[in-house]
Request: fold
Amino acid sequence: MRQIMDAKTVSQTLKRLSYEILEKHDDTDDIAIIGIQRRGAVIAKRIRDYIAKTEGVEIPMGELDITLYRDDLAADGKLPKVYETKIDFDVDGKTIILVDDVLYTGRTVRCALSEIMDFGRPQRIELCVLVDRGHRELPIRADFVGKNIPTSKEEIVEVLLKEHDDRDEVIVHKRKD
Reply:
């Protein structure tokens, strides 16, 4: 197991991502942030809070659970844990900043895009991830990336956040079969 990011680096990276979003979007009136449950939602909230603190603006934020949109839902036979989807703003015409912790195959993002479109028709959807580990199976790329981490398919990238794990850290370790 190796540590890729410690708590200080996670915090600095999320601040940098916030600034990159602001640099790209001079006018924050038409943007909204949606985080993919669980850790993507936490990251989205932190980014939204950094923007509010820096710019003094409240950007609408939602949370998305893509569990029921997955194409591998019945593959392992286990009952999935379903979290809340909460989007209490109109997505029509908005630029949606979709936030997740790790970008890997692209399948989670594909599910999230499908679900967002069920809420309406955004002007655009941009992807923000804390970690991009490569190995894409679908033609999806992030617009905002905290850190690119080259990995093998035998490795797992684990994002730990204090809201769920009592600490902020990104680690890489070998997959246990």
